[in-house]
Amino acid sequence: MTTTTILMLAALVLLVFGAVFVFATTRSRDRAAAVGALSRETRKSDRSEAALVEEGAKTTTGRAVERAAALERRGGALVEARPAPPAVRAPLEPDAYGVTRRQFFNRGITALFALGLAGFSTQTIAFLWPSLSGGFGSKIRAGKLDEILREVADKKEPFYVPEGRFYVNPYPSDDLSKAANHYTGEVLSGMEQGVVALYQKCVHLGCRVPWCKTSQWFECPCHGSQYNRVGEHKAGPAPRGLDRFGVSVSGGMVVVDTKEIIQGPPIGTNTTGQEAEGPHCA
Q: Which DSSP helix (H) or strand (E) runs through 163?
């Protein structure tokens, strides 16, 4: 037998085997498409476990459903497949209840917005609400007259009341006749009681004017305006003396009315004649 004959026989055998393989594969695919093929794991599960059905109902496996479908196509009896009942879900524990991420962010943003709005509203109302008692803009009890005068004499500096933003300094009784020519109302009444209440702001540009202990004057560090012990202008760019408040003394208690700021005396007013008693601070 020649080599050519052997090759022809081998080719014929391969052709036959190929045809058989193609036929078998095509038939398997057609059957799977018509009937449905079950995997090995599924067939094993059908043999070992039955699907859950209602109590008292007949158990139907996947293979039985497949056979019923085949019988129906051939005109045979139809075996009805009964679906398994839904599994009963156990009630959730109280700790399992919660909110979604979206709900959490929505509620958080709403809470932050509400808190911010409440804080802003509170601050706005507090700023606009008038001060009914105490603090600047009302009548303030500065203290006992004799105690204030004693403290001023001991410390050599004015008695400062921060809540009223004013200084209290003694006014010499020997100069009341001159004061009557320049002051009126509660300012003059306070001087007659022996004190004057001076607003802490410089009348030039509004800086707080500190007390210079060496010169015994009020001296503004911002632009150098200077005022004597009773707030009368002595030097600097200020257009007048320190503004002041009305003072009354009742039962020995000094009461200063900060509701009205009374304009200070004009430049050149010098009722006490007090000059600087030492080096200037400003």
A: none
- Determine the residue type at 16: V
What's the domain count of the chain?
3
Q: Which of 114, 132, 150 delimits the end of a domain?
A: 132
pLDDT, tens digit (0-9, with 9 covering 90-100), for 134-167: 678 889 999 999 999 999 999 999 999 999 999 9
pTM: 0.54
Is 159 within a domain? yes
* Domain of residue 250, residue span: 139-262
What's the average model confidence in pLDDT over 66-83? Answer: 64
pLDDT at 222 over 80: yes
Residue 58 lies in a domain: yes
Nearest CA-CA partner of 46 in 30, 26, 32, 66: 66
Burial label, 61 (beta-carbon count in 10 A; 0-12, 13-18, 19+): middle
